[in-house]
Amino acid sequence: MIRENIDSVRQRISDSCARSGRLVGDVKLVIVTKAASGKQVGEVIGMGLNTLGENRVQDATERYAVFGDTAEWHLIGHLQTNKVKDAVRIFKLIHSVDSARLMEAINKEALKSGKVQDVLLQVNISGEDSKFGVKPEESTGLIKIFKEYKNIMVLGLMTIAPEVKDPEEARPFFRALRELRDHINSLNLTTHNLKLLSMGMTNDFEVAVEEGSNIIRIGRAIFRGGSR
Ligand SMILES: *Cc1c(COP(=O)(O)O)cnc(C)c1O
Fold first, then answer.
1. Which atom of ligand 1 is nearest to the CA of 76?
2. Nearest Cα residue to 217 out of 227, 207, 226, 205
3. Distance from chain centroid for Cα 212
4. Which of 30, 74, 101, 160 has the CA that lies 20 to 30 A from 201?
């Protein structure tokens, strides 16, 4: 069943790419395992699909103890400064950096372990109170701060769209994140361009891909039969 679900998600990614003139190879699928069993995680890794997303550092720590580097772990949920040490140890990419303080803490831990930690800046593009993330207008300031740090690398932006009935309603938020990234890049604040846009989940990933997402984070469509 997981296999079929993943194939179906892949087909839908491919269709969205075709509709928007994009290359399938430019869209990375992060399989969100927060609601999966350990057995299911093993199954997914066994299929050679090994980019896995977890919401909580604690859960990821347990999974990492079992599966280690057979998977590439991504943190997609909020990160507290007291969990930064484990986060730096485990995650290839932290999608949820949302403050200067957190950046500083990550840089410090990464320096200790001789790692350059890849991160994304989480942006609260919809402005909902319930959501983590920096305000769009704060994002350039944080990109400037990050330049001071040698052991943290901001590769792009992440957002969570509002929950809407019709995924089309999420489109303006995805478009706004892409435009924000392009705007930041046009300012030449960093030596490298911000390339990554982590946006799109089970309910809205097709629209997100059409709007330029290159990392989608999918849980339910794979582990619970999905939204269709
Ligand atoms: C749970 C979660 C996902 C996956 O959501 P689904 O609707 O299960 O696909 C993606 N991103 C974040 C930040 C999440 O918390």
1. 13
2. 205
3. 14
4. 101
CA of 49 to the centre of ligand 1 (A): 17
User: 52 CB less than 6 Å from ligand 1?
Assistant: no
CA of 88 to the centre of ligand 1 (A): 21
32 CA from centroid of ligand 1 (Å): 6
Q: What is the pLDDT of residues 62-93, one digit of tens each?
A: 999 999 999 999 999 999 999 999 999 999 99
195-198, long-range: CB within 8 Å, 24+ apart, which pairs?
A: 195/155, 195/156, 196/120, 196/155, 196/156, 196/157, 197/156, 197/157, 197/158, 198/30, 198/76, 198/95, 198/120, 198/156, 198/157, 198/158, 198/159
> From the CB of 158, is ligand 1 less than 6 Å away?
no
pLDDT digits (tens, 9 = 90+) for 26-68: 999 999 999 999 999 999 999 999 999 999 999 999 999 999 9
- With a 6 Å cutoff on the Cβ, whether 219 touches ligand 1 is yes
Going by C-alpha positions, the residue among 13, 46, 38 that lies closest to residue 27 is 13
For residue 163, give the DSSP letter: P
